[in-house]
Amino acid sequence: MSGKDSGLRIRVERPLRDQFLQLCRSHDRPAAQVIREFMRDYVARYAEDKNQLVEKRSVDLANE
Predict the structure, then answer these.
(1) Mean pLDDT value across the chain
(2) pLDDT in tens, 6-34
(3) Angstrom distances, CA of residue 10 to CA of 13, 18, 24, 61
(4) How far apart are CA 24 and CA 5, in angstroms?
(5) Cα(30)–Cα(20) distance, rounded to whole angstroms?
(6) H/E element holding 17?
């Protein structure tokens, strides 16, 4: 995996955050690693059928 060069800041309810962090700790996994895995799975699932659209948007954004 290449180096990480971007951050993502989200706001969630404190109880959800606390439960998530507790579960991550109980599985000996950093929260950031779990979130990155979720993001990769989500992209793989939903971009699969829309690869051309995703690629077109990337090109459009690069040309702005």
Answers:
(1) 84
(2) 899 999 999 999 999 999 999 999 999 99
(3) 10, 14, 17, 23
(4) 23
(5) 10
(6) helix 14-26
Contact at 8 Å (CB) between 21 and 35? no
CA 19 to chain centroid = 18
Cβ 54 vs Cβ 61: under 8 Å: no
d(CA 11, CA 5): 20
Q: What region, left, alpha or beta, does residue 17 occupy, with left being phi > 0 and alpha being psi -120 to 50 degrees?
A: alpha
Mean pLDDT on 30-59? 80
44 CA to centre of own chain = 11
Q: What angle do CA 18, 6, 57 make, to 5 degrees?
A: 110
Q: Rounded to the nearest 10 degrees, how much is the dihedral formed by the CA atoms of 30, 34, 39, 42? A: 180
- Two tokens, residue 8: 């993502």
